[in-house]
Amino acid sequence: MSQLVIDALVLGSIYLLFCLGMSISWGTIDILNFAHGGIFMFSAFVASQIVSHVELGLITICVISAVVGAVVSAAIDVLAFQPILRRAKNQRTAELQILIGGIGIGTIPVAIVQFYTLSEPFGFLRSTYETTVHSFGGMRLSSTGLVVLGCALVLTVSIAYWLKNTSHGLALRAIGVDSETAELMGVKRRQLSLLTMGISGGLAGLAGALLTFNLGAITAESGETLLIKAFAIIILGGVGSTGGAALGAMILAFSEVLVLRYTGGGWVDAVGFGLILVVLLLRPQGIFGKKEVRRV
Amino acid sequence: MSDFYFSNIVLIQSTFTVLLLALSIQIQFRMGVFSFAGAAFYGMGSYGVAILVLHYDFGAFSALATIVVICAMVGYLLSLVVQRLNGLYLAMATVAFVMIVTVVAHNGGTLTGGSVGLFGVLTPVEISVPHLLAVCAVVVAAMIVSERGAMGRRIEAVREDPELASAMGINVARYRKMSFVLSGVLGALGGGLNILMMTAIAPENIGFPLIVLALTIIIVGGSRSWIGVLIGALIFTWLPVVLEQVGTYQSIVYGVIVAIAAIFMPGGITGIVTDLYRRRSARSNADAFESEQRLEARAAEEDAAEAAELQAELASSTTPSGGSR
């Protein structure tokens, strides 16, 4: 039983790292980035290509992957999302165009990686890092699992602090409430948007590297299912709420681990999708979310 | 002609089944409902027909009709369930619905054939291109009717400004529910006809890739009219054949096309064409202004004549009867 708890915590931490970036960019600058899954997988892929030439350790690989993610995400912001926001007539059409553009952009890295790997799984074969398994009291936790847990904890807390207590965070939250008024108050929307997308992409890249270490290998399509699960987590916790994302990730992970334990593996994915429907029906604003007021 | 027909029969078939799939999603976009449920109905249509034919010995037409009715009902129920949702939340709820259909297909055991899927769906009456074309013709005719006249204007009002539309006395909720029912009918027709011609279906043929395909078609062709969807369906079924050397890069090219279309031409190809048309008519506005003035003058003359006529009529009718009705 306690082994189940550890498995769920590690799984939840990976979900959390993945969806944290999506949650910030959606909650503040109104960009629901559907290319996030592509960025996540592509960063890990670039890192794996580098590792196949040079032997590197865990930390270096994670840093490379995070940097790649940040750069790709910022580039997508500049090339796609900002032009859409500039041209869109109103917020509703902007939201939809960003979603559709994101889905389109997200298929590009997936297609590139499928092309290079011939849809085979890829991993960090020549890294110097080796997993060790710690066991205590009949429970087992790998060193990778430990790193994942630590990263998720540290990053979630520091992002929550960043949003709550720094001037950048305040400005971002102000954009989330009312972007026009915030701009009149001297908030530089474009720059902050770039920063947010960069951070969001960096988190995606880190999550990609860590998931690859944890599972041994991932495939080009790994981002797609995670994307919809991340959406479930974000609406479960409330859009833009860091604590909510953490709670949502853990709830999803625990339910999935339990379903895996008591039924066949095939139904695991239905948990996330079912959760989306249930949450949207019962409490659309999420556990920690505030009701969105939109005036006509 | 017949050589061309027989060597490309699979492409011709998929052009029209994909057209039905894309229309099942476009009809909801057209009513301002951001839903991908059509992809789920396509999957349900494919699996439903396959199950009825393989396990319950249905004929082609009875299986198709049954599934269309079932999907229309499921569409109505779904519309009640997601009634309160809008925008992105609605989109994601329907994506979740599509994915649940896929998970059920994966885990349905012998009923859905698990991850292998179902194959050998053969019926005594062979469904072929003429049947498909007939169905598409009826569907497109219905689309044309719904895009014109009062109906077309009402749908446009529901899409552009639901609050204004309901203030004008249009029952917006009813239109939204109707869009789900119609999506169910079109999706089921597309999926059902597809399985009757292709005879096999697997879980990887339904689900998220269908959403991407339909979106690609709608975004590039244009979401306002059935013509855009038809153009998109033609492009994306025949593009791989035309650009055979692109082959392996195909999905990369698709992604780039969708991204560019979403960023720079939100109205799609049909949107660009109508924009150009409007700009041209704006350029010839000078002539238009002149002729308008002439028209107005004529209209004023006619009005005056009509008024005089009416007056005369009134005078003649009021004098004898004393003015009472």
Automatic annotation (TrEMBL), chain A:
Arranged from A to Z, the UniProt key words for this protein are: Amino-acid transport, Cell membrane, Membrane, Transmembrane, Transmembrane helix, Transport
Please list every transmembrane segment annotated in the UniProt record, as residue ranges. 6-24, 31-51, 57-84, 96-118, 138-163, 194-218, 230-254, 266-282
A GO biological process of this protein is: amino acid transport
Q: A GO CC term?
A: plasma membrane
Give the membrane topology, semicolon-separated if more than one. Multi-pass membrane protein
Superkingdom in the source lineage: Bacteria
Protein localization: Cell membrane
**Broad class of the protein's primary localization:** membrane
Concerning CDD domains, the annotation shows: TM_PBP1_LivH_like
| Pfam family, any one | BPD_transp_2
Q: Which InterPro entries match?
A: ABC_transp_permease (IPR001851), BCAA_transport_permease (IPR052157)
MF terms from GO for this chain are: transmembrane transporter activity
Family named by the database record: Belongs to the binding-protein-dependent transport system permease family. LivHM subfamily.
Q: What is this protein called?
A: Branched-chain amino acid ABC transporter permease
* Gene source species: Rhodococcus rhodochrous
UniProtKB/TrEMBL annotation, chain B:
| Transmembrane segments annotated in the record for this chain | 6-25, 32-54, 60-81, 88-107, 127-145, 180-200, 206-222, 229-246, 252-273
Instruction: Tell me what topology the record assigns in the membrane.
Output: Multi-pass membrane protein
Cell compartments where the protein resides: Cell membrane
Sorted keywords for this record are: Cell membrane, Membrane, Transmembrane, Transmembrane helix
Annotated InterPro entries: ABC_transp_permease, LivM-like
Name by which UniProt lists this protein: Amino acid/amide ABC transporter membrane protein 2, HAAT family (TC 3.A.1.4.-)
